[in-house]
Design a protein that fits this description.
Strand order of the largest sheet: 3-4-6-5-7-10
Largest sheet: 6 strands, mixed
Helix content: 25-40%
Shape: globular
Radius of gyration: 20 Å
Number of strands: 10
Number of helices: 7
Oligomer: single chain
Distance between the termini: 13 Å
Structural class: alpha/beta
Order of helices and strands: EEHHEEEHEHEEHEHEH
Bound molecules: N-[2-(1H-imidazol-4-yl)ethyl]acetamide, zinc ion
Length: 330
């Protein structure tokens, strides 16, 4: 078996102290066989992130949103075997009809074994968590562009080193048009994640199936911590453990935490609840804020200062390794 690298993690656990102060030392050996996987290039991912920001805020029904859609279709279509653009008119919390596009790139369309990867590509029309400019749109360097940037670099690597399993990359639209804090309208349920709700009820291929899914949301902040988010625990715990153990085998322990944190309403909730495909969310948890989201979240600080290439690398390499692990049946 060439193409296989063995990695051993040796943890020394000092388990118990006997009354006579004798320490019992227990050696826990975790061993994981790592498939050969391409190297995720964080500079390429960062360039894709900057390219998205160059259009400005990607708010549905704006010119920048249309220009970004055109670019994402072109680039994902270039890397993937098949590109499908799913267009829909979706009603926002305030009644606005959003012209939305879910952009879907597939590799090995006929393969039975499939992994679904997703991120949202639209950005929030308001900065309702900011102190000023509340009604101005945000740039969404982390909340939007980071997940897409990682997926575009993964798409490039999949074209260079094609696996046998199927991969579907879905860039969801209209995730972040949810009812803002300043809205005086009565509470509207399910006002976020409109693109993923639509896709979950109307998959781009009838009876679409995948073994599991991974959602990326806010995956670029400096020193980000990705925890076991509650919705992922509830629906896809097995895959959280799979992906986290791969992250740890690659040495990204400082980013991937086993701490369980509050369930979040994000695109994966609807994919899980409506399609039954188990999907995890790799999303930053920030224990120092009230919301649990990063300090930049839904503010005008969500710009390049909220991005560190090393975080893009940790997430991108972990997801890429997960794909090639599955490809080898590991
Ligand atoms: C809510 O704010 C309800 N959910 C967070 C989902 C989200 C917004 N992710 C990015 N922006
Ligand atoms: Zn957001």
């Amino acid at each position: 078996m060439k193409n296989i690298v063995f990695v051993s993690l040796i943890a020394l656990v000092f388990l118990a102290c006997k009354p006579n102060n004798q320490t019992i030392e227990i050696e826990k050996v975790e061993s994981m066989q790592l498939a050969e996987a391409p190297i995720f290039n964080e500079d390429s991912a960062f360039a894709q992130l900057e390219k998205q920001l160059s259009f400005g805020p990607r708010v549905p029904n704006t010119a920048a949103h249309q220009e970004a859609a055109n670019y994402l279709q072109k680039i994902l279509g270039h890397y993937a075997d098949t590109l499908i653009v799913q267009k829909a008119e979706l009603k926002a919390y305030d009644g606005t009809i959003l012209k939305a596009s879910n952009i879907i790139g597939s590799f090995n369309l006929t393969a039975q074994k499939r992994i679904l990867l997703a991120a949202h590509w639209d950005t929030r029309p308001f900065a309702d968590q900011d102190e000023e400019g509340l009604t101005d749109p945000i740039l969404g360097a982390n909340d939007g562009a980071s997940g897409v940037a990682v997926l575009l670099e993964i798409a490039r690597q999949l074209q260079l080193t094609p696996p046998e399993i199927g991969i579907d990359i879905i860039l969801f639209d209209a995730e972040d048009y949810g009812q803002p804090a300043f809205s005086e309208d009565p509470f509207v349920r399910d006002s976020y994640c409109l693109g993923s709700q639509y896709w979950s009820k109307n998959p781009h291929i009838p009876n679409y199936q995948a073994d599991f899914g991974i959602l990326l949301d806010m995956v670029g902040a400096p020193n980000a911590l990705f925890t076991h988010e509650g919705t992922s625990v509830n629906y896809a715990n097995e895959y959280l453990h799979k992906v986290w153990s791969i992250a740890h085998a690659l040495g990204y322990n400082s980013y991937f935490s086993y701490l369980q944190t509050n369930a979040i309403t994000d695109d994966h909730l609807y994919v899980n609840a409506i399609t039954g495909i188990p999907m995890i969310d790799i999303i930053q948890h920030d224990a120092s804020t009230n919301s649990g989201f990063g300090w930049y979240w839904h503010t005008h600080d969500d710009n390049l200062d909220a991005i560190d290439k090393r975080t893009l690398k940790a997430v991108g390499q972990t997801v890429l390794q997960t794909i090639y692990q599955e490809n080898q049946g590991l």
